[in-house]
Amino acid sequence: MNGTKYADAVGAVRAMENTLLGKSDIEQLINARSKSEVKSIFSSRTGNQLADLNDVWNFLCEYAPDCEELKILLYRNDFHNLKAVLKAIISNRDPEQYYIAPSNIGLSELTDAVSKKEYDLLPKYMQKTALEAYELLTKTLDGQLSDSFIDRSALEAVQKSSEECGIEFMKKYAQLITACSDIKTAYRCCILGKSAQFMENAVCGSPEIEKDELIKSALAGTEQLFTYLETTHYSEAAALLKESSAKYEKWCDDVIMELAEDARMLAFGSEPLAAYFIAKEAEIKNLRILSVCKEFGADKETITERMRKLYV
User: Which Gene3D superfamilies does the record associate with it (predicted)?
Assistant: First the structure.
């Protein structure tokens, strides 16, 4: 790949980084007295530029329309939408209320392809999953089983495509989100007493967290699960998961942000574009957390503890 291929796009992203919220902005938002004041402060700070992820995605696509590796960032949205469409078809409901944007395939296209069983109209990375998930759901009517299969398939697709694109940032991103998801899945399965067969269907596996070992330890109970995780690179995450799921989720988001911070420093390539998208994801999540906390009257200390790591 030509190192200067995305030079213009990186330049545009550098300019937009100036509108990202900083530490002082977050402190001001935390001190806001209401949801409306949070919104007002945010609007005055950013001018509502690229206020949602759809805007961010369109902005990136405008400057780098042929950047295929960026699409990997939306795979989990695509597979989530597949779950929504399958359930909607089975229950005769409208999937739109469950649809997540941005995505690599529109809701109407996805719905048409699945309902007509024309899976070749879907992106290649989800064709087989759509077919198998439809058959699994219609045969078993087990939505949880189907969902776990699709979630695992999404992670497999992310890993496969990141390996194929050959970009180290994307490979590491894939490993991190897979490991974080697998640990959470194994823990939930352990708590709920799920079978080995269910875990086999739900856990993906990655170079950092070996699938068979994770399942084996989860089947033996939470203490054995945490004992295994203490031998991996995710011992810190495991310690936080022992305390609370919220602290674990924050750790996962923050470690992805740390990866994005490293990628941000690169002068060329698609990495700074992906990093900016991840930064906006975190910013929007922080605003959502703030809004909910304000609505329920959480104190400043609680809100501060829940804030995700900032990009700037």
Answer: ATP synthase (C/AC39) subunit, domain 3, V-type ATP synthase subunit C domain
Question: From the CB of residue 18, how many other CB atoms can be counted at a distance below 10 Å?
Answer: 10
| CA dist., res. 244 & res. 128, Å (int) | 36
Asked whether the whole model's pTM tops 0.85, one would answer yes
Distance of CA 265 to the CA centre of its chain: 22
Domain limit, last residue, from 166, 187, 216: 166
Which residue among 166, 197, 216 closes a domain?
166
State whether 156 and 110 are in the same domain. yes
Instruction: Determine how many CB atoms are found less than 10 A away from the CB of residue 46.
Output: 17
* Number of domains into which the chain is organized: 2
Short-list 56, 55, 103, 97, CA closest to 79: 103
For the CA atoms of 143, 148, 149, 150, what is the dihedral angle to 10 degrees? 90
**Gyration radius from the chain CA atoms:** 20
Task: Collect the ranges in the chain with pLDDT lower than 50.
Answer: 1-2
Residue 139's pLDDT is 94
102 preceded by a cis bond (ω within 30 of 0): yes
pLDDT, tens digit, 9 for 90 and up, residues 270-288: 999 999 999 999 999 998 9
Are 145 and 201 in contact by the 8 Å Cβ rule? The answer is: yes
The reported pLDDT for the residue numbered 42 is 78
User: What is the extent of the structural domain holding 309?
Assistant: 1-67+270-312
Question: For 215-273, how does the pLDDT look when each residue is reduced to its tens digit (9 = 90+)?
Answer: 999 999 999 999 999 999 999 999 999 999 999 999 999 999 999 999 988 878 999 99
Q: How far apart are CA 133 and CA 150, in angstroms?
A: 7
